[in-house]
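Example record for the data management plan.
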Amino acid sequence: MASPRDGDRVLVLKEQWLRCILRGEKRMEVRGARLKSGCVFFGCGGLVYASAMLGAAKLITSDEQWRELRSQHCVGTDVLPYKKTFG
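Corresponding structural encoding:
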């Protein structure tokens, strides 16, 4: 894997989410702000573990839609975690 260079994006994750991504269990990152599509590195604890190409972020608009996407994001709550939730 290539290392990030100056200006590259590194998405800092909690260890539990990074492990789920690396195992292929989590296929959707959830944020309160829209992430730009394109190449991103995944980091945790000051180290970089992987890179990926992010697709276009999608606004999740309802609790029902949120629950339907659960298998992709692996978050256990039934309600949207942010005022504006993007996956």
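Summary line stored alongside the record: The beta strands are 10-12, 38-44, 47-54, 59-60, 85-86.
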